[in-house]
Design goal:
The chain is α/β, with parallel strands linked by helices. The protein has seven helices and nine strands. It has one domain: Rossmann fold, CATH 3.40.50.
Length: about 210
């Protein structure tokens, strides 16, 4: 498949997709983060651009699209912890999330999935839930229980948990811990691409709960 991976970060969801069967384009706006993508996945195309606009201009060129739009303005955890304690200010929910879901649903003929955190408000479009995430998708998302997110474990535990070593990288716009926390778990990304493959083969089944 020709795959478009939007808001790619360091490529957590992409890590276990393999490189032989698929032609993968990763879009990431942060140049420092994009450098990790280039070195982790040398056969992929890496585009440093605004993913929201890239989707609108290029969606017809792909068979499968994954999007993980920025999540802080939607986050239940951010609102109930950091905002409640006065560490962060309230912000408007970023409506690009809903624009992309509707755009893909209305205009894209291929398979697609949009991933985000569980929101502090009732979702405007009903999601599927898996692995502590919300998903909106053209196919059934498998139920995956990740035993821990390690978000409070520090950089070393996050690197081990996500399977990336960023110790030699410098990120000007965010901390290493935040880069790793933003990274979708590779096992979750793999399971979802496999579910898409079953849909494309006309073989969609009812998924049970899988622990990883």
């Amino acid at each position: 498949m020709k795959i478009l991976n939007l808001y790619a970060g360091i490529g957590g969801n992409r890590k276990k997709w393999g490189g032989e069967k698929h032609n993968i384009t990763n879009v990431e706006w942060d140049e420092d983060v994009a450098q990790v993508l280039r070195e982790e996945f040398p056969n992929d195309e890496v585009v440093v651009r605004d993913a929201h606009e890239y989707l609108k201009e290029n969606f017809e060129d792909f068979d499968f699209i994954w999007a993980s739009p920025p999540c802080p303005s939607h986050s239940r955890v951010r609102k109930n912890s950091a905002v409640a304690r006065g560490q962060n200010k309230p912000v408007y929910p970023d409506m690009k999330l809903w624009q992309e879901i509707l755009f893909l649903k209305g205009y894209f003929d291929g398979e697609w999935v949009v991933e985000n955190v569980k929101s502090w408000y009732d979702p405007l479009i009903k999601p599927q839930e898996s692995g502590q995430h919300y998903f909106w998708s053209s196919f059934a998302i498998p139920k995956i229980d990740l035993k821990t997110r390690e978000h409070d474990g520090g950089v070393e535990k996050l690197q081990k948990h996500k399977g990336f070593d960023v110790s030699d990288y410098t990120f000007e716009n965010k901390s290493k811990e935040k880069v790793l926390r933003n990274c979708v778990h590779p096992k979750l990304g793999k399971k979802i691409l496999q579910a898409c493959g079953k849909t494309k083969q006309g073989n969609l089944v009812s998924f049970g709960k899988t622990e990883v």
